[in-house]
Amino acid sequence: MTREPMLPAVETFVATVRGLFEQGLSADEVWPQACEPLRDMLRDPSVCEHATTWPTSPAKLGLEGKHANLLFYEDPDYGFVINGLIKKPRAKTTIHDHGKSWTLYGVADGGENVLRFKRTDGGAPGDLPETAAVEETEKVEVGPGFIDFIKPWEIHAEYNGDEPTVAVIVRSQRCGTYVQNIFYKKDKTVEQYYGPDQIPFSFG
User: Fold this and answer.
1) Are 197 and 146 in contact (CB under 8 A)?
2) DSSP E strands: which ranges in the chain?
3) What confidence tens digit (pLDDT) does each residue in 116-133 have?
4) Domain of 20: which CATH number?
5) Is residue 52, in this structure, part of any structural domain at all?
6) Does 1 fall in a domain?
7) What pTM was estimated for this model as a whole?
């Protein structure tokens, strides 16, 4: 089945990631090496211009917490996907992990604070607990060109500033194919879900 062509900068990024897999590299070798190619893609003016066409409706695309992502691409051989989202000013995500997925979160426009957390209850990565205690370990203010490299099960959150944040997200597999955790600090409960809804959208 023939797919619709994407922007040249995006096609170059896809070819680069596919090339890493074709070398027989493991996931923990592929994804660190994909950070700089993603940064190059984000620098391309056509990508920034295309982002101005991304919708913020239906409502879940701009929602805090359990939101939705645009789905631009899913690789037929290696399973990785390219997502997009626009977060509204002052939006806050939940404290969450991305389950077993590797994730590159690239800021194309705007800025936000990335918060990182660790478990303090002795739980191990890969757990799907009913309760857990987490504490903040780091807060990083980020802007255009920043790539947040998120390993499987790493706990984090993003808090927006006064401007919207536009981001391109590369995941090692599509949301909905794995379970992830949401951590609620107020009562230490943990909820499992299958990640943001996926809304197909052209990147061409």
Assistant:
1) no
2) 68-74, 81-87, 95-96, 103-109, 112-119, 134-142, 147-150, 155-160, 165-171, 180-184, 189-193, 197-200
3) 999 999 998 899 999 999
4) 2.60.120.10
5) yes
6) no
7) 0.95
